[in-house]
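for the record, two folds in this file. i put them one after another cuz i was lazy. first one right below, seq on top, structure tokens after. the second one comes after a little note so u can tell where it starts
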Amino acid sequence: MNKPKVKTFCVVFAALCFLSACGDGEHEDLQAWIDSVGNDQRGKIPPLPKIRTYVPVTYSVSSSLDPFDDAKLEPDIKGGYAQGKGAPDFDAREARNNILERYSLENMRMIGYLNINNQPMAVVFVDQLTKQVKVGDWIGLDFGRVLRVTDQEVELEETIQNADGDWSTRNNSLQLQTGEGG
């Protein structure tokens, strides 16, 4: 009965000798690598940026427009428009009392063309009203004056106001609307 105890003792002794041989400095390079990796694992915080001092700048350009000028924010208005360079004649508009000058061009539709006594005319429909338009007539909110009438469109020149308060002209047209959806 003693033999199995001796065998077990020998096996345990051999295992202990083998394990003690592994820890005997053979793997010092592995231990050094583990130690060096552990040293590099610390977090690094970048340095704070340098704070620049605030230097105030004064607005001293007397020849430029003042962005806070009350006249620029609330211009002199007549009829909903400011009086600026190249402004149209507002009094003449009021005197004309043309119904087509009360509607935006986007709301108007050209629905027909007439040629009466060699004078071309367009038939314009707006807000349940049907009106005839010829060269020289005024239509639209943007002081549109009819320059030419063809069987397909009404060409006009509008006077519009830009952001600076000055007035300029642009060309626009009213196209003939055909079909059910037109």
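(here's the note) second protein begins now
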Amino acid sequence: MPPAAFASFGHRSFRYFWFGGITANSARWFQMVALPAVVWDLTASPGWVGFAGFGQFAAMAVMAPVAGMVADHYPRRKVLMVSQSLMGLVSVAMALSWAQGVRSPVAYVALAVASGMAGGLNLPVWQAFVSELVPRELLLNAVTLNSAQFNSSRLVGPMLGGITVAAAGPAAAFWVSAAGAGAVVLVLTRVESRKTGSAVGTPSMRLIRNTLDVARYVLARRGLVVAFATVSLIGAAGLPIQVLTVVFAEDVFDRGPGGFGLMLTMLGVGAVVAAPIVASLGGRVPRSRIQRVALTVYGAGVAALAVAPSFGLYLVPLALIGAAHLASASALNTAVQLQVDEERRTQVMSLYVMVLMSSNPLGQLALGQLIEAIGPRPAFGVYGGLLLGGTAALHVSGWLRHLDVEVGEYSPQVAPEVHPTTPSPPRPPRGTAPS
């Protein structure tokens, strides 16, 4: 691995926060596994589990613009400490509810919504503090390493979370998630930002007017329009694929929960392997080229999933999809950061997050219905074609070149990496009762 791939680790505060982040996000996976397992155990209904996931992401999408305005009024580190504390408190509430015998699915759906609200406050500023810890020339490097941190947590978090739920019950998993949030709060007291003073800008707290103003700001800049269009494509046609591979684990290859866990792990493996390569490309390879290659590999990988004849061969394109997702997200996040002015930065990031989180559940809903109508293999083929067609349109039109533009005054901050929604646990075999 080239030394340039890890250049951001030369900054002490970045190292501290990176390791705090991987600890917290690994712990967060415990809750992401336990919550759908609880709802499934109480209802045996994929619909209920999907409803809980939709409620959580809808709350996150609604909160994202609010978070942008709050972060422009208060120091971003304090906002992050508050949001992480709230996320930890919701995890504590889940643990206590289960331990005290609360068995109403409505209660856990409500807690999922509360968790989504806290996460929506957290997402637009989660990596903002990370990028404040490195200089301008290391922005792509820091973004990519932090994306690798998220994906590395997926290598161990779901597996350990599942073991914990099976061995010690959901409450124990919720307590681990709460402890992870507490770890981030402690880390935030030990790191120092390269920025001086609070977040700049004094925008109005009127949500609708501000959101429309930010939308007009984005529409006036071609590079931002391209970035938003691309992230919408990935949210609608890319992330749903990662979630609904559960259908292949159960209905196509008959591998059950263990097979699905291995599928998620392969996505993380691909991202982690690609991270040092992408991180070393900053300043040497145009972002448009990174994005074009990443989207092409993404679409080809999804198309390969549709025709993979065996479970073993199915894992290979999953690793490629994980690598492509990381490369695409890193290039897009960097392009957005270098094309906004400081007074609009946080609000543009909030709108970016809202677009991604809105397109993702809609894409999942459409893919689920398509699978019901024509089957998993043809449906995945359609989505692979959508990704490849969208990539071709962006390339032929020349729009991707606008990702290479750098305008506005630079101030370190990056858009967040977003985990896909947690899928429903695999259904029991047809004709058998759920355990």
